[in-house]
Amino acid sequence: MATNGNDETPESGTWEVLPPDPTHPRRLRLPLSTAVDVRKELARLYRQMKVGRIPAADGTKLAYVLNILRQTIETSDIEQRLEALEKATEGQKEY
Fold first, then answer.
1. What's the angle, vertex CA 79, arms to CA 90 and CA 36, rounded to 5?
2. Which domain covers residue 53, as residue numbers?
């Protein structure tokens, strides 16, 4: 069977399983610190919506928030790269 390039499972070691909470069902905590992390979470959300585990209305709202998070991460990355480039070229200016 061909894979789609998304091998993320709880057994793969990239998910953190939280201890049981008597007031909540068992949850998985996924990292959301990079655009790749957010992409993986969006893919997981899509699959859950597709099989009916999450209502489309709820999934759409979550996807919207994830997209804002992705945009924020990308903007932050660009700012950091620009700052590094400015520092690297600071001493190279010739007037």
1. 135
2. 28-87
